[in-house]
């Protein structure tokens, strides 16, 4: 009881699913070798040895991702190629990236950024985003990306919670999302705007500066004084990623420099990246995938990262795969479903023969999509599972390993996972401080991980109790329900909480409810994820109105617009008016009941529902 689980046929029903495993001979000997052998022999200490480190036991992600190559054999290899619609492609070699991130680090230091300070971007995929991310790390500060499709409210809240000191953004986002709330952000000292200056409209206030000016001055300062990358300790904070929970404010997952050991090892084993490989990750760097595998992991491997600032467009995507001769492609189920909609024939109009490995993450990958990959690309899609909190891939279908369509794959070497028996609330059950690890290959439980992998989050910023609650009896609890079959393959079953997954992005229902509650007509809101064939789920809100308000189509539209304006892309797409919302006796809106009703499922245990008088 407790949760509405959208059982997946292949996941919960036991057996190994109807579809046979797909075993193809890889086009290149996979770096992981044989998974079973690697699992026995691999240690994180060994992976640390694949990196260089800094004198005195220091470790800095940016050194491993950029400087090590930029001042070594890979200096002239292209590190990042930036594609943009209607604009020429630009690229930076590892040597250029090493130098320009030095300049950026100096710029941030000259703006007063010190070790541990937070620096945010609110930018599309662009050179400025890469430079800020890596320059921040070089300066020993903490990089925190924000999703550019967020509206004003999520942006304001994250800047506030993060105590962010410098924000790099563009003039449109600044004007619409930041300027109006600037007086509520006392920690935000400087905003750097990347597209000012061109038309002589350089921002004039001291706190809003033009990127070009800042970089020009930093470049001179670098020539005068030089720059040395900050010797961060392995356990020093490096990255801050906001993620959504079922209640309360967004959680700021803090990652440390040591995470780079996991970024690197997983980029090798799961993405199979070697120096010079042409690699495209479609994730937005505003979310964790875009940082771990759009920036850090592939660069530590010396790969060439392709990045495109344009939104999804099937023909454009196939053209990029063809023209850029992409070898490794990391994307998401929603994107694959959008490609599938256009038919396999479209894929066959392009020469995709460079592709060697296709990988997916973020939400359940339908077995149909795995098989479609076989037709469209000649390669099965390889699913991977991880979370903001895990920082890096934890479960994966590895190259060279038979793919079981519908399974997330097997644990990363060096990582121990367990499926824990559930208690009455649907989460891992704790009896006398202990949990029970299930060994029945058909049993569904909460997926848990033994702490000790290097990219494990080390805190929820400012919320140590919330952090402590994520661990029980020596396990990190993921909040996902899964099954572990007899051969060590994990099958995703559902979430154990109310968090919504839309197009691969986690959305906290509480955040959406709070924003809608600010509309004067609204009395109460309950938000659920409604299944959607393309996005997995969309956000649907159930709204009761204040006493004198009457439901109408125009009010519904007004609320949709209100939500869009406040929340941006995480706003509800559907709104339904209700007379009453179901509550628990303690007064909380019962989202699971709203969801069960929406889906026409049994309402389950109603013992905690408040009885209407
Ligand atoms: C949640 C984490 C993965 C990094 C980006 C998203 C869901 C993730 C899969 C998968 C089924 C998946 C889980 C997880 N999820 N990968 N392969 N199959 N579900 O990170 O925003 O923290 O989301 O995404 O529910 O807990 P995130």
Helicity level: 25-40%
Q: Please, what is the CATH homologous superfamily of the largest domain?
A: ANL, N-terminal domain
> What order do the strands of the largest sheet run in, or round the barrel if closed?
2-1-11-10-12-13-14-15-16
User: What is the overall shape?
Assistant: globular
- Per DSSP, what share of the residues sits in E-state strands of 2 or more residues? 15-25%
In the CATH hierarchy, what is the class of the largest domain? Alpha Beta
Mean pLDDT: 93
The overall strand count is: 27
Can you tell me the number of structural domains? 4
The main β sheet shows up as: 9 strands, mixed
Query: Which topology of the largest domain does CATH recognise?
Result: Rossmann fold
How large is the count of helical segments?
19
Plain-language structure description:
With 613 residues, the protein is of the alpha/beta class. It folds into four domains: 1-53 and 256-414, ANL, N-terminal domain (Rossmann fold), CATH 3.40.50; 83-230, Rossmann fold, CATH 3.40.50.980; 416-449 and 463-497, Luciferase, domain 3 (Roll); 500-610, GMP Synthetase, Chain A, domain 3 (2-Layer Sandwich). Helix content is 30%, strand content 22%. It has 19 helices and 27 strands. Strand 1 (78-84) and strand 2 (87-93) form a beta hairpin. Helix 4 (61-70) runs parallel beside helix 11 (288-300) and helix 10 crosses helix 11. The longest helix is centred in the N-terminal third of the chain and has 17 residues, at 94-110. The chain is globular. Bound molecules: 5'-O-[(S)-butoxy(hydroxy)phosphoryl]adenosine. The site of 5'-O-[(S)-butoxy(hydroxy)phosphoryl]adenosine (WT7) has 22 residues, from helix 11, strand 14, strand 21 and strand 22.
């Amino acid at each position: 009881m407790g949760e509405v689980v959208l059982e997946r046929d292949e996941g919960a029903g036991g057996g190994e699913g109807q579809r046979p495993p797909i075993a193809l001979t890889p086009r290149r000997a996979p770096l992981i070798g044989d998974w079973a052998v690697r699992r026995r022999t691999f240690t994180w200490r060994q992976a640390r040895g694949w990196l260089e480190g800094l004198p005195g036991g220091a470790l800095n992600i940016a050194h491993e991702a950029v400087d090590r190559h930029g001042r070594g054999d890979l200096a002239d290899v292209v590190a990042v190629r930036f594609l943009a619609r209607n604009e020429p492609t630009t690229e930076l070699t590892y040597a250029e990236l090493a130098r320009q991130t030095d300049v950026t680090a100096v710029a941030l230091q000259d703006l007063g950024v010190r070790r541990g300070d937070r620096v945010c971007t609110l930018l599309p995929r662009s050179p400025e985003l890469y430079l800020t991310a890596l320059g921040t790390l070089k300066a020993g500060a903490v990089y925190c990306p924000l999703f550019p499709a967020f509206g004003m409210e999520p942006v304001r809240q994250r800047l506030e919670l993060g105590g962010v000191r410098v924000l790099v953004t563009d003039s449109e986002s600044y004007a619409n999302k930041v300027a109006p709330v600037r007086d509520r952000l006392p920690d935000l000292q400087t905003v750097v705007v990347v597209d000012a200056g061109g038309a002589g409209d350089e921002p004039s206030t001291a706190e809003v500066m033009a990127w070009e000016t800042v970089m020009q001055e930093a470049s001179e300062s670098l020539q005068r004084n030089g720059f040395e990358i900050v010797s961060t300790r392995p356990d020093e904070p490096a990255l801050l990623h906001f993620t959504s929970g079922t209640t309360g404010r967004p959680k700021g997952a803090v990652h440390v420099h040591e995470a780079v050991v996991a970024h690197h090892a997983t980029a090798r084993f799961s993405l199979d990246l070697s120096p010079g490989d042409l690699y495209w990750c479609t994730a937005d760097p505003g979310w964790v995938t875009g940082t771990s595998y759009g920036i850090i992991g592939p660069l530590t491997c010396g790969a060439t990262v392709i990045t495109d600032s344009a939104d999804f467009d099937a023909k454009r995507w196939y053209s990029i795969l063809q023209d850029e001769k992409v070898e490794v492609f990391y994307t998401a189920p929603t994107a694959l479903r959008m490609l599938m909609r256009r038919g396999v024939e479209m894929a066959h109009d392009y020469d995709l023969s460079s592709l060697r490995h296709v990988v997916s993450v973020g939400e359940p990958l339908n077995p149909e999509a795995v098989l479609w990959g076989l037709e469209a690309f000649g390669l099965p899609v390889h699913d991977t599972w991880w979370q903001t909190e895990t920082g890096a891939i934890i479960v994966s279908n590895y190259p060279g390993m038979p793919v079981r369509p519908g399974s997330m794959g097997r644990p990363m070497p060096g990582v121990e996972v367990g499926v824990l028996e559930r208690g009455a609330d649907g989460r891992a059950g704790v009896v006398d401080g202990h949990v029970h690890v299930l060994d029945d290959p058909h049993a569904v439980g909460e997926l848990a991980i033994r702490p000790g992998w290097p990219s494990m989050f080390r805190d929820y910023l400012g919320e140590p109790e919330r952090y402590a609650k994520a661990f029980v009896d020596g396990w990190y609890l993921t909040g996902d329900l899964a099954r572990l079959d007899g051969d060590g393959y994990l099958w995703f079953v559902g979430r154990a909480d109310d968090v919504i997954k839309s197009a691969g992005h986690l959305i906290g229902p509480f955040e959406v409810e709070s924003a809608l509650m600010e509309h004067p007509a609204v009395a109460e809101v309950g938000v659920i994820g409604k299944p959607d064939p393309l996005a997995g789920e969309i956000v649907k809100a159930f709204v009761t109105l204040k006493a004198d308000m009457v439901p109408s189509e125009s009010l519904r539209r007004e609320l949709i617009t209100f939500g869009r304006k406040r929340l941006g892309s995480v706003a509800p797409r559907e709104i339904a008016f209700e007379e009453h919302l179901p509550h628990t006796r303690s007064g909380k809106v019962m989202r699971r009941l709203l969801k069960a009703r929406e889906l026409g499922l049994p309402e389950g245990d109603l013992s905690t529902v408040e009885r209407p008088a």
